Amino acid sequence: MRNYFRILRFARPYRKQILLSVIFNLLVVLFSLGSITILIPVLKILFENTQQQPQPLPFQGLLQLREYLESQLNYHIVRWSGQIGAQRVLLYILGVATLLFILKNACRYLGGVFLAFIKNGVERDLRTSIHAKVLDLPLAFFTEKHKGDIVARLTTDITEIQWAFMSSIQRMIQDPLMILSTILLLVVLSPKLTLFVVVLIPVTGFVITAVGNTLKRPSARAKEELGRILSYVEEHLGGLPIIKSYVAERTVQRHFQASNERYFRAMNQMLFRRELSSPISEVLGSMVIIAIVWFGSNLILNDGDLQPEIFITYIVLFYQIINPAKSLSTAFYDIKRGEASAARILDLFDTPNPMIDEPDALPKASFDSEIRLCDVSFRYGDPLVLRNIDLTISKGKTLALVGQSGSGKTTLASLLNRFYDVSDGRIEIDGTDLRRIRLHDLRKLIGYITQDAILFNDSIRNNLLLAKPDASEEELVWAARIANAHEFILAAEQGYDTVIGDRGLKLSGGQRQRLTIARAVLKNPPILILDEATSSLDSESEKLVQDALEKLTANRTSIIIAHRLSTVQHADEIAVLKAGRIIERGNHDQLMALDGEYRKLVALQAL
């Protein structure tokens, strides 16, 4: 239940609605009990069992409450019947009963309206908070998690909580009130019979609790498997060309089917046990009713301690306990089932983020002199990916990083962006350690263009405005022209307002890359990191993109990670990486003269 109460903290902003919902649910209970208790005078009139009462008894304390109320009832029924007739008294009583039923249902509706507002508000706030947390977490977190699992927490887990937890709020408020109020009224009507009932109720509660406790484990397994299924779907949709090319449909279908089968079994286990709740409650309730009828009959026939109309009303009132008790048991089952979803969401919230600003982090609005990497080493796991890297990049200069795949070039770019923190050593900008600079300020200084052109399923305009949300139309066009993108944008169906599809798939590779360059131009950062920005393009597209990059890097500090060495020959300095170390450095001519690793790479590409 700890997770349940942690999730309920999201309901704090809705205190007013919660209070109103509680008030209306309380009124539902009062009007419901009143509409049933009014049966007593009706039955007294029908059974002609109203005793003559010259004067009502005075109130003599709670222990004599039943006798006091019965004397009041008998006195007024006899008096009113003598004045206006029994039939008219009966009609008036039924009119009051009708009014009570109307008021009960009106309050139920109003209580439900406020509860719906709370439920939907909590669901909205939960989804917003999870999305904000996902955006805040470091990239290292997502290397260990399936995207589909994150999507499941944002969708199915929240829906489960909305259904299991939020829907239980009304039942956890109204049902206990109904049960407690009804029991108090039953005590007034017959203390002996109620004592007998109170002995039976814990037995039923124990059985219901035992069944409910078995729900949590299969529910957790089902949620984990659903996240895996969503991950499979995402991977298979993204890799469909490869799957078809390698004729691997049966293989991936087999993996998906196995996961789907595990989900099927876990859901069956959970739902089979959940479906036990209603039959068990029904059987136990029926057994309790039979026991009450037997015991109450003895009180009427043998002891004369209970009147028939009181006993009938008692049975009807007790039936009012059964439905809330069943509803409460269902709410208990739902909470147990929702515990798994709550645990998954709270686990995400509880994930620490090491990439946060230090309390004394410094603001940084400009780049003034140099970037320095001082004895930098880094590891994702046990083996080091980078070893003892020392580099200095002066303002306005261009550094190229070259080397075979896996040599650590992209890792170095990630460290400069502070997607990760160095394992050893330090990286400085203008003499200040990156970890001492506000993260927001640091990333405002850097423009990052990757090999994969990352675009969103939105208009060209909105994709560019990510860099500068308040940019004018003139600035957009200026950035697009520098990136050699303005012409193809105008040729698109709706110009800058053309929606480019998922990941920009409506555009060619070169067009997508030029849009990312235009976005970087619009940001206008003093430092540029280009991670193999032209490696996947054809010759014509590469020429256009390369021309755009040359315009972009002019008079800027640039770090270029290159696979095609022809694009970095004019860099001020080239660093050759191998197995995480810098093994050669210098300009193109110097490295060619060394006749080392760089010359070998150039010769291989010439072939």
What are the SSEs and their pairings?
Elements: H1 2-8, H2 15-37, H3 39-47, H4 65-84, H5 86-136, H6 139-142, H7 147-154, H8 156-189, H9 191-212, H10 216-238, H11 240-245, H12 249-275, H13 277-303, H14 308-349, E1 370-379, E2 384-394, E3 398-403, H15 409-416, E4 424-429, E5 432-433, H16 439-444, E6 446-449, H17 460-465, H18 473-482, H19 486-491, H20 509-523, E7 527-531, H21 539-553, E8 557-561, E9 573-578, E10 581-586, H22 588-594, H23 597-606
Parallel strand pairs: 3-8, 3-9, 6-7, 7-8
Antiparallel strand pairs: 1-2, 1-4, 4-5, 9-10
Helix pairs in contact: 1-14, 2-5, 2-8, 3-14, 4-5, 5-8, 7-10, 8-9, 8-14, 9-13, 9-14, 10-12, 10-14, 13-14, 18-20, 20-21
Task: Write structural notes for this entry.
Helix 7 crosses helix 10 (216-238) and helix 9 packs antiparallel against helix 13 (277-303). This protein has 23 helices and ten strands. Helices cover 64% and strands 10% of the residues. It has helices spanning 2-8, 15-37, 39-47, 65-84, 86-136, 139-142, 147-154, 156-189, 191-212, 216-238, 240-245, 249-275, 277-303, 308-349, 409-416, 439-444, 460-465, 473-482, 486-491, 509-523, 539-553, 588-594, 597-606; strands at 370-379, 384-394, 398-403, 424-429, 432-433, 446-449, 527-531, 557-561, 573-578, 581-586. The mean pLDDT is 79. The strands form two sheets. It has a six-stranded mixed beta sheet with strand order 6-7-8-3-9-10, with helices on both faces. Strands 2-1-4-5 form a four-stranded antiparallel beta sheet, covered by helices on one side. Strand 1 (370-379) and strand 2 (384-394) form a beta hairpin. By secondary structure, it is α/β, with parallel strands linked by helices.
